[in-house]
Amino acid sequence: MTISVAVSGASGYAGGEVLRLLAGHPDAEIGAITAHSNAGSRLGGLQPHLHALADRILVDTTVENLAGHDVVFLALPHGASAEIAAQLSADTLVIDAGADHRLTDPAAWEKFYGSPHAGSWPYGLPELPGHREKLRGAKRIAVPGCYPTSSLLALTPGFAAGLLEPDDVVIVAASGTSGAGKAAKPHLLGSEVMGGMSPYGVGGGHRHTPEIEQGLSAAAGEQVSISFTPTLAPMARGILTTATAKVRPGVDAAALRAAWETAYADEPFVRVLPEGQWPATKMVVGSNYAALQLAYDPHAGRVIVSAVIDNLTKGTAGGAVQSMNIALGLDEGAGLTLQGVAP
Amino acid sequence: MTISVAVSGASGYAGGEVLRLLAGHPDAEIGAITAHSNAGSRLGGLQPHLHALADRILVDTTVENLAGHDVVFLALPHGASAEIAAQLSADTLVIDAGADHRLTDPAAWEKFYGSPHAGSWPYGLPELPGHREKLRGAKRIAVPGCYPTSSLLALTPGFAAGLLEPDDVVIVAASGTSGAGKAAKPHLLGSEVMGGMSPYGVGGGHRHTPEIEQGLSAAAGEQVSISFTPTLAPMARGILTTATAKVRPGVDAAALRAAWETAYADEPFVRVLPEGQWPATKMVVGSNYAALQLAYDPHAGRVIVSAVIDNLTKGTAGGAVQSMNIALGLDEGAGLTLQGVAP
Amino acid sequence: MTISVAVSGASGYAGGEVLRLLAGHPDAEIGAITAHSNAGSRLGGLQPHLHALADRILVDTTVENLAGHDVVFLALPHGASAEIAAQLSADTLVIDAGADHRLTDPAAWEKFYGSPHAGSWPYGLPELPGHREKLRGAKRIAVPGCYPTSSLLALTPGFAAGLLEPDDVVIVAASGTSGAGKAAKPHLLGSEVMGGMSPYGVGGGHRHTPEIEQGLSAAAGEQVSISFTPTLAPMARGILTTATAKVRPGVDAAALRAAWETAYADEPFVRVLPEGQWPATKMVVGSNYAALQLAYDPHAGRVIVSAVIDNLTKGTAGGAVQSMNIALGLDEGAGLTLQGVAP
Amino acid sequence: MTISVAVSGASGYAGGEVLRLLAGHPDAEIGAITAHSNAGSRLGGLQPHLHALADRILVDTTVENLAGHDVVFLALPHGASAEIAAQLSADTLVIDAGADHRLTDPAAWEKFYGSPHAGSWPYGLPELPGHREKLRGAKRIAVPGCYPTSSLLALTPGFAAGLLEPDDVVIVAASGTSGAGKAAKPHLLGSEVMGGMSPYGVGGGHRHTPEIEQGLSAAAGEQVSISFTPTLAPMARGILTTATAKVRPGVDAAALRAAWETAYADEPFVRVLPEGQWPATKMVVGSNYAALQLAYDPHAGRVIVSAVIDNLTKGTAGGAVQSMNIALGLDEGAGLTLQGVAP
């Protein structure tokens, strides 16, 4: 079975990673590769690591160019995908790596993005309770944000099992710079980021906050509120998420561990590490894996969960391909690597 | 006024940083430079950045070699400094960069370090309430740990002003690798640390936890308990601390901001940045500055404070020199730079 | 066709990379995984990025454990492989990632390694003239060093075509730290290597010098002598080689370009980039590709060639797997990726 | 003696480093701080590491704002400084960190820069033969480029002593990204530069080539031609220069060593390291030192010299301040640190 796939936003980091994965996908045939200002350029000049596709020419991101494929990946600035998706056939699988269709609550969307809500699509994080089923046969998929992917994988088992208090969650995450995209901004220059760390979007304003709360609340069956602080780390790829929550009275370390291990026992791409081994982002560079570890701190009455993903792979393009595979009934792991590239 | 200073542990990172600062101190004359296994070596082979001292020969770390100076810096593995200090004259200013004399509670020491408590010395963080006075004329000074320095600077104003709940503090900190010292361990190899992040000591077991709680509890006038997670970042120097606490009912953003700004209004080395500017570790590399910013997140009911220091300067050697200056009645900033080396 | 493969030295970087590639090889079945001091450990604790193999247990590096496989990879300290290889069946394909069997000249071996010469094996760089044929059906293969791989790919076309002077070659190469191995040495600590560069082995003493000269001389049909300076760069993977040579009288830019393009026109893993595009090591991280560019500097009368490889992939394990594929008659690219992992 | 100093281009890296050094200069009083598009901004928002100057406001780069100071530093795009300098009083010391006045040969200027030559000024590299004398009392100084500084320090002693062939010089240098400035360009993003190396300006076209040849030719007393290849390294600061030349017949290792050691015996900021110790850029970060080492490779008939500087300090702002000190008769090392900030 050969699937024809078009990829938009191909000059950016998310689009490049989608192409990297599709180039190794046994069932995918890469059709149109589109961009905006870079239309007309060789891909090799923009994504020089994609050797097998170096001589492909980017075309304009238009409905005409994207139409006629089995699958269309949209890696566009938010606000741009709804309009394009509306003009693509309902039989085409449209996978949006942007934010437009992630939030179910129009009010939350409008508060954090300041524009009308475009509606919500099935959410491409199959490891959340009940989500894999919703992705089977879906024709529209919203790819989660990278911080929500790691945060939801970190904390969902505890909330789904009723072990955690809903109003005392703190998440601090460190992301590689590719998460900020390829637009040249002074604070993202190598001279600025190498050798240092800094926070950003502190105090509740980060757009991933409502997305994380949406997922945790669904798992908990009650409103969960979080404090989320992202930081920028001197690395190109990877997210390390440190997530903590107060545990409910009577919950002990064994119950916590059992909840997480049970939740992910059959997952191909999420792993609770053996006790005593802590995750490191380099375990998962270029891979679709998420590695977790947790500890119960009785002194603080908290569980601390560390989760690592590659923000471009499991956090964006890998999760997108995994969701595509599920939607189309392919092997869920097709085109995805289990092994990270390390050291 | 010329002060003769001996420096032990001179082949390590803390000792090297003390020497770097003393080489630029207008009143200090560097006497004995001592080491353990590296005694007999040229300093230039071990600390090749200390050009002015390159031809100095390291001698053994013995009481004989350290005695006879006005000031003795001890940068030794914990457990080693108490015995040496006991044999140095009571008139000698002994500044211990190690952990031995930081904790006032013998039970906390024994729980976290597993050895008998050596007693506590005046704590070299002059910005804490009442501490500068205790350092004046002191002959024994315990240099704070690097994580406690940034964590206490981050949260003390809020506790001292009675604005924060004592039992819901979460601190996540990212440190450069120099904080782990110069002993060659596989997980600290460049190949392992470049391009990745990882947590360690998760779940309450880190030895800096009781030290941070000690300082916050003293400021609060009640027992403060924290959840503390350190992470290792791919940079040589710097700590970014993200510290959050629940605010007491009725406390608003203005009250929070006022508490921090008032606390540090007259401090030469601690700065609350203008609103909207967030700290970055590269602001303070090689400098004795601590830069802070805070935000009130009404959604989570929390204050989030970001603090950056250079772990080797304000976090170790700079704090030590600052404390020495206070103890001896010198200009508090002598030998210390305000400017970081950036980019 | 399923090939059983044993991998020795599996706790090091070369062994880990062999395993990473074999885990994705369609025809390989990973048998014994061996180590020396780490025998008995879980692979997941030593190579935590190899998720699919995490629960495999390392066994001792003995002939007994390695025997009985179709292929044996030796990633051992130099001096160790000859003895083991001698005891393995002549029908077993033995691929030595170490130096023991690279040099054909016993005198050169003894001068640079200070031990008796173990003999030479077919040299696993199929892109050199005539080498692919020698690898077909071979049962013993010596994997080239990483610096020789990039240096020989950079300059061989010019020497093979008779365009370059043999006595005025200068090569300066920058390598990532994984090339120095996983043994914990102080100068390889992250604190030391991050943010800086340094040379080593300057002045002709580096053991890769005779290996590079051997290959270039064979291509030139006369003795080529080089000046080779390796430097250590703050990155985990990759080699950037800058290689220059004087061009013979009458040779022009077009002749130079034609020689390189012709030499690699049919190569699956070596690419001369389009004019004006220069290679960067990040193009090839995790990939078996070598990317080249050249320029003629008429002012200096020199050709300058830039070549990039991933030292662990094309420079070691990828070249080894490529050679294995050729020796066994498999698809030359099986298990190897064309795409780098970037950014 | 208090010197009033104005600094233009203060929002860039060169201007920022000048300010950092002047902030610690015992005789300098920082007057106007000027910029182009950032005029009107707080310095603290643009150079957040310059804590002592954080509240200073940048003014426009105009003759009016720069006039009336004893010293004016110009850190402007090339082409901009000649016009401004012409309008400043002949009694004002004008120090140009840009390229405009470095080359003595108008034809070379026009070939590499494509604009009319503005004339040449005394060249601010006091370690070159006869240069310190020319700087004493000078009122116009051209600050050398960063690559020329390290390349000329590396090779001048051999040419001045007549030990080297003039037509076979190869220089390969690795620079930190701050050398490329603060303008946001995609290839300088942290995501692009971290973890990789790349060459640029290959084949004789780099503008520093004629500047290096000018200095070497002056020392040699004959025309020296070089092959120069710069590369971009994943670090913010520092240059590692590998420079090699053929030695004249009859020259041996002792003669080479003696030439270099004699040349720099009395220099305060250049050091030939003890035999066997090789330079590393981290030795000199933030410092005005240049550290060198050399080796004679009899096999290739070449001397190889490694030189390290901080491109922003000795390579730009430090060299500028050192030259200012000489010109004004101040202590040559005032405001300059000998010690690097390491690790």
The gyration radius over C-alpha positions of chain A equals 19 Å
Q: Which structural class is indicated by helix and strand composition of chain A?
A: alpha/beta
Contiguous uncertain segments of 5+ residues of chain A: none
- What is the strand content of chain A? 15-25%
Largest sheet of chain A: 7 strands, mixed
Number of helices of chain A: 11
Overall pLDDT of chain A, averaged? 96
Number of strands of chain A: 13
Order of helices and strands of chain A: EHEHEHEHEHHEHEHEHEEHEEEH
- Assembly status: homotetramer
Strand order of the largest sheet of chain A: 8-9-7-10-13-12-11
Distance between termini of chain A?
A: 36 Å
State the shape of chain A. Answer: globular
What level of helicity do the residues of chain A show? 25-40%
Largest interface: A-B, 51 and 51 residues
Q: Could you characterize the architecture of this molecule?
A:
The structure is a homotetramer of 343-residue chains. Chain A has helices spanning 13-22, 43-46, 63-66, 81-87, 106-113, 131-135, 146-160, 190-193, 208-220, 253-264, 313-328; strands spanning 3-7, 28-35, 59-60, 71-74, 93-96, 140-142, 169-175, 198-199, 226-232, 239-246, 270-272, 290-297, 302-309. With 343 residues, chain A is α/β, with parallel strands linked by helices. In chain A, the strands form two sheets. The first copy, chain A, has a seven-stranded mixed β-sheet with strand order 8-9-7-10-13-12-11. A six-stranded parallel β-sheet of chain A has the order 3-2-1-4-5-6, covered by helices on one side. In chain A, strand 4 (71-74), helix 4 (81-87) and strand 5 form a beta-alpha-beta unit. In chain A, helix 1 (13-22) crosses helix 11 and helix 7 (146-160) runs parallel beside helix 9. The first copy, chain A, starts with a strand and ends in a 15-residue tail after the last helix. Chains B and D meet through helix 1 of B and helix 1 of D. Chains A, B, C, D: Belongs to the NAGSA dehydrogenase family. Type 1 subfamily.
